[in-house]
Amino acid sequence: MTINYKKLNSKANPPLRATEYSAGADLCACLDSAVTVKAESQLLIPTGIAIEIPEGYGGFVFPRSSVSSKHGVSLANCVGVIDADYRGEVKIPLINHSKSDYTINNGDRIAQLVIMPVELAEFAESASLSDTVRGDGGFGSTGGTKLVTVL
Asked: What is the side-by-side order of every strand in the sheet holding 73-75?
C-alpha cells in the first residue's frame, strides 16, 4: 500500500518506518526552532505534512515508546485518529507527565503513524441488546478496581 503525503513546509520529514517490519512510521516535529514541553503541560507540535489515507482505512497516531518510557512524554489524546477524508496538517498533541521539561528540536521523532483498516459501521437504535455472560459489568467488573459513577 502506498500512502501519499504532501510537504506543507520545506523542513518537514516524510513518515518513515525505522525497520523493514516496523508497524508504525515515525512522525517528526517540523519546527523553526526548538520548543520545550514544560513539566506537567502540553503542546501541539506540527509535522509539516498532510497525508492521504485511502477510503476504508484510518491513520492512528501512537506515542513513541522510547519517548514515553524514558521521558514521560506521550500523546495528550492517548491515540490520535486521522480520518480518510482529512487533508490538513498532521499535528501531534504531546503531554509531559514528568516533573522535568522536555525539549523538541526540528526533525525529532515524536510519534508514530499506523495505517489500519476501518469498518464504517452503521448504528441502529434497538429496544434491547443480546445477552452475554458479562452483561453490563463495566469498569472493574472482572476483578479490577471499581470506579465511582459521577452523576
From this structure: 4-7, 42-52, 89-96, 73-75
